[in-house]
Amino acid sequence: MAGLPLAACAAVAFHLCLLAASSSTPRLTPSSEGRHGGRTAYHFQPAKNWQNDPNGPMYYNGIYHFFYQYNPHGALWDIGSLSWGHSVSGDLVNWAALDNALDPTVPFDANGCWSGSATILPGGTPAILYTGIDAKKEQVQNLAFPKNTSDPLLREWDKPSYNPVIPLPVDVPGDKFRDPSTAWLGRDGLWRIAVSAEVSGVASTLIYRSADFLRWERNAVPLHSSRAAGMVECPDLFPVKEHGNDGFDTSANGPGVRHVLKLSVMDTFQDYYMVGRYDDATDAFVLEEPERGDDVRNWRRLDYGHVYASKSFFDARKNRRVLWAWANESDSQADDIARGWSGVQTFPRKVWMDKDGKTLRQWPIEEIETLRTKRVGLQRTEVNAGALKEIVGVAGSQADVKVVFKIPSLAEAETLDPNWLLDPQKLCGEKGASVQGGIGPFGLIVMASGDLQEHTAVFFRVFKHHEKYKVLMCTDLTRSSTRARVYKPPYGGFVDIDIEEHRSIKLRTLIDHSVVESFGAGGRVCITARVYPEHAATSNRHLFVFNNGTDALGVSKLEVWELATATVNIVGDGDCKYCRRRRP
Ligand code: DQQ
Q: What b/e string do you get for 218-232 counting C-beta neighbours within 10 Å, with b at 16 or more?
């Protein structure tokens, strides 16, 4: 059974297990081999070419389906060529590639099958709603159904000829009407979806209602609108528990339920969210933090790094909500073409609402543990001021790192200039890992060359602010690569925790060649970065804890697991018949 761990096979429908396991590609142990040009080992990527937004994730009849914006013809986004790539999995870690689910073939999607969502209808039929770029190059919303629901892999999808089910409204420009959300049922028995549009120059999240999923009527009042934000995309409205971290089906509402509205803002290329109360009698969404206003750019950031167009789904298998997001490349298009691929997905994250009622918590799904191999750890140790401590014994290019820092005293915290509160990203830029502070910077140095000429730092820094303390979390890419044409902005956000009370803070970082995906304070702040170290192809990647503050710092616990390579859309073997069809 090369290619799929036995544990995963036990959890997966047998045919799917065979499909993935039929790959003759051996399960690699972590090494530099086979991961050329930053190709990842356990993040979702198609075998080649361009991918962007996650589309229509769902759990159906014991199998996870993942669709994604895919250009089958090359490594760049191409306005007229987008298809829905399709892969299936038994465990959200190992994936088998199928043929595209949707290609631009008919007048209502002749110029591209753009983003959308999947909904499982009562009776169990899955339905896809997606944006078609029609023959007139206008955006319309289309429906697709599996050709054969008894095919457990749902390989072929039918686009009924009555499409589009939602034509372009007269008050919306032809290029600003897209990205239908997963549908939810109101208590009146009507389906609702959210669709992004620009209406008379205002970025709007429209609600459409339907009794039969075929005929859709637009509500007069949008769910949300913002004059300031420019076009928003990929709306996601989902329920979260007031207490606890289990998930809810998308239609859940009533006592104990809050909702999260996530929007992707084109201007900033960032995802933002707000917790609120959604009333399905009026289709109104009332913000939990009205002081942040309607301008989505003032809402909470889903991830302070380089991710966009996220989408969640309810995983009935494990009663949780799981979120995916696209992490674009940060190097040049010429590099993408040379590599032959572009774009990864973040590792699937479980999401729930923090007990503060405002913050989303995000955490890698527990299945990542099936990839863990070698472990090294530290217990109750100190890192002196200005010191680095190397963690040896694990390959630093495919790892899951968890560390708990202990702050003995806050006396040396630097004073926060209030202007910095508005721009944590800029603050991270001005006070990077190499700028000595009072409490911090302290954290991890990852993907480092032996001489540290190249490295990426993920760190915290504690400031004093009006007799209270503010914790900043940053990813510093300044030295992440010596290559030219790499986008290396500072990334960072403030972490909402009471450091005075806890005197400790946790950091978890997933390292996967060109991905450094970090979760601060139990997933209250996430920062995903793409890195392209030159040394990666030729030497080992080192891993350190560091402290560039003025006092010694405690590390109560540190655990690092080397991660094995998952089977993700492997092509090139002789056996995987579904993969073979995608060979050139
Ligand atoms: N990507 C899709 C659109 C969506 C955008 C096209 C967001 O449907 O608005 O590839 O990245």
A: beeebbbbbeebebb
Q: Where are the alpha helices (DSSP H) in 304-377?
A: 333-339
Count the residues in the chain.
584
| Position in ligand 1 atom list of the atom nearest CA 82 | 10
Residues with CB under 6 A from ligand 1: 52-53, 69, 82, 114-115, 131, 178-179, 233-234, 308-309
Smallest Cα–Cα separation from 178: which of 261, 101, 238, 266? 266
Residue 303 a catalytic site member: no
Report DSSP state, residue 564: P
Tokens 């909702």 belong to 259
Answer yes or no: is pLDDT of 131 > 90: yes
Please give the Cα distance from 403 to 424 (Å, whole number).
23
Q: Which of 195, 231, 27 is nearest to 114 (CA)?
A: 195
Ligand 1 centroid, distance to 233 Cα (angstroms) = 7
pLDDT in tens, 439-481: 999 999 999 999 999 999 999 999 999 999 999 999 999 999 9
Question: Cβ-count burial of 422 within 10 angstroms (0-12 exposed, 13-18 middle, 19+ buried)?
Answer: exposed
Confidence of residue 317 (pLDDT cuts 50, 70, 90): very high
Contact assessment for residue 385 and residue 274, using Cβ atoms and an 8 Å cutoff: no
Per-residue pLDDT at 388 = 96
User: In terms of Cα–Cα distance, which of 93, 99, 97, 101 is closest to 23?
Assistant: 97
| pTM assigned to the model | 0.93
The percentage of residues in the chain with a pLDDT greater than 90, rounded to a whole number, is 87
Ligand 1 atom closest to the Cα of residue 115 is 8
Question: Average pLDDT of 108-121?
Answer: 98
> What is d(CA 43, CA 325) in angstroms, rounded to the nearest whole number?
11
pLDDT of residue 539: 79
Atom of ligand 1 at shortest distance to CA of 77? Answer: 10
Query: How many angstroms does the Cα of residue 322 sit away from the middle of ligand 1?
Result: 20
For the chain, list the domains and their CATH numbers. Answer: 28-41+50-364 (2.115.10.20), 373-563 (2.60.120.560)
Between the alpha carbon of residue 498 and those of residues 246, 416, 502, the distances in Å are 25, 16, 6
User: Whose alpha carbon is nearest atom 9 of ligand 1?
Assistant: 233
CA gap 17, 11 in Å, rounded: 9
Distance 12 CA to ligand 1 centre (A): 31
Helix (H/G/I), strand (E/B), else coil: 544: strand
